[in-house]
Amino acid sequence: MAVDARDPEVLAWFWCGVLGSSVVRRWHDAHGTAYVEVGLVGDVVLLFQAVAAPTAGKNRLHLDVAAPGDQRAEVERLVGLGARVLDEAPDHPWIVLADPEGNEFCVLPARAS
User: Fold this and answer.
1) Residue 92 φ then ψ, to 5°
2) What are phi and psi of 75, to 5 degrees?
3) pLDDT digit string (tens) for 24-72?
4) Which residues partner with 28 through β-bridges?
5) Which residues are 108's β-sheet partners?
6) Is 14 exposed, middle or buried (0-12, 13-18, 19+ CB in 10 A)?
7) Quick one: three-class SS letters along the chain?
């Protein structure tokens, strides 16, 4: 999954903190565009690529993050990393947040084991 970013390093750092991951690769293409790759499971990666202008409007694809325990505690942790709460969604089980560049994502309650 690729994510456009004004500052790929900042977003990669944020999402590494959210997902407990690390940067596995950095590079520039032939046009000088910067890329930062965050490893997930197996060969799955999040790729943050530098863009000059932010995407206008609501993002059509977003991540859902299942809280490992208490949902509110996870939201507080993510806010401490730089997220902001957009919608408490009282009639839904998720809470909508935005990452440091405004990309929306949801925090779900912990999954039943």
Assistant:
1) -130, 160
2) -60, -45
3) 999 999 999 999 999 988 888 899 999 987 667 667 678 899 999 999 9
4) 34
5) 66
6) buried
7) CEEEECCHHHHHHHHHHHHCCEEEEEEECCCCCEEEEEECCCCCEEEEEECCCCCCCCCCCCEEEECCCCHHHHHHHHHHHCCEEEECCCCCCCEEEECCCCCEEEEECCCCC
Report which residue type is found at 31.
Answer: H
Among 67, 97, 103, residue whose Cα is nearest residue 84: 97
Contact present, 69 and 22 (Cβ < 8 Å): no
Other residues' Cβ atoms within 10 Å of the Cβ of residue 97: 22
Total residue count of the chain as it appears in this document: 113
